[in-house]
Amino acid sequence: MTRPTALREAHAHLPAHGREMGYLALGDCVDRGDALDRVARHAADLDRRAEPGWLLASGLRPESWASAPGGAAWPTRDELDRACPRRPCFVGAFDHHSCALNSAALAASGFHDASPDPEGGVIARDARGRATGVLLESAYGAARAAIPEPTRPQWKRFIKAAADHLASLGFVEVHDLLTPPGLGSILAELHDEGALPVRVLLYRPWRELDDEVAAAGSYRRAGVDLAGGKLFADGTLNAATAWMLHPYREPVAGMLHGKPLAAPAELDEALAACQARGLELAVHAIGDAAVRATLDARARRPAARLRIEHAELIDRADVPRFAELGVTCSVQPCHLLYDAEALRRRCPDRLDRVLPLRELIDSGCGPGGLLWFGSDTPIVRPDPGDSIAAAVQRRRAQGSPAGPACDPVAPEQAITEGEAWACFGGSEQ
Known about the structure:
Elements: E1 7-12, H1 14-20, E2 24-25, H2 32-48, E3 55-60, H3 77-83, E4 89-93, E5 98-101, H4 103-108, E6 121-125, E7 131-137, H5 138-146, H6 152-168, E8 171-176, H7 183-192, E9 199-205, H8 209-219, E10 224-232, H9 264-276, E11 280-285, H10 288-300, E12 306-310, H11 319-325, E13 328-331, H12 334-346, H13 357-362, E14 371-373, H14 384-393, H15 417-422
Parallel strand pairs: 1-8, 2-3, 3-4, 8-9, 9-10, 10-11, 11-12, 12-13, 13-14
Antiparallel strand pairs: 4-5, 5-7, 6-7
Helix pairs in contact: 1-6, 2-3, 6-7, 7-8, 9-10, 12-14
């Protein structure tokens, strides 16, 4: 079929996508040694050029090294100290929920060996209790916050580059799903300068909506608008912090079922806050327990508008509830290409519940109606063809940027190419 035009990117992070276009990319590393070699070469190059600041890298996927010598082991703080001895080094995982740091970056993030785990986060430790440099969830967030902030002119360049890139892929509408302060005003400037090639809908952290509602009057344009709030109900699969109904086969210590990040009371409060402001709530819920808890919250507040982001595992009993409750299921099939190893390692008995797209459509979630596709860029690349391939073939094909070819995951949940394109809200030429 002809590739459609006028696509909707339903889940993106515009500032991060633009900024990470300049990071050291580690997504295609074949093992830990390869990653460390690249960091060392980049560090040496930065030193030679006398570049100030941190070494910033992204896209790390330790789970993809499961069959490599050394297995799916993260680079350690000591290894990163040797690879990057003269500056703080931040190596982010592709999921944006975890990272590895050298000693300088760990200290700059406010952590040391005796630091307790922050609320909602984990400081990984070795057998002696020493911090390894690997941080998860809110601990990862502290590391991100410690990285020096770009200037506003730099942010404007990053955001313009990201918008141009998405437009080049056929997108005319982009949903920014964790909007930072100031993004609306920058987008409005670009719009007024005739330099914003896409329409952008913003979703701010739900507790910050009052400030954003007040600011929205100054930036609302034909191409920019505030659409809702955002809440995290759990973590991610690759960090084993997605909240599951069933235990992980290889859980993180103390997190047999992953990590819930929002209690029922907070879900209720967030839905009420968005409803009172005429906005919708977008909830990050990857694991089937997080999906169920979010649907339960919507059932308690029938008039609220809700979209669930990711929904990578959905229990069979919860599939029909999306259409019954009128909840948008906003998924990123392209993540299947990157998560295949993590799914088989950690959830081998639940593979049939991974992205049940066929069941969702058959239960009433019309493609482009209640079932939307996006990429979550820069978590993975935003090429819509990746999600089409994952939704139709349910596997990585030869030559995939996510790694070598693999067997299909839940092939019975495949949908047609036409249905997949419709989930991007596109129309054929």
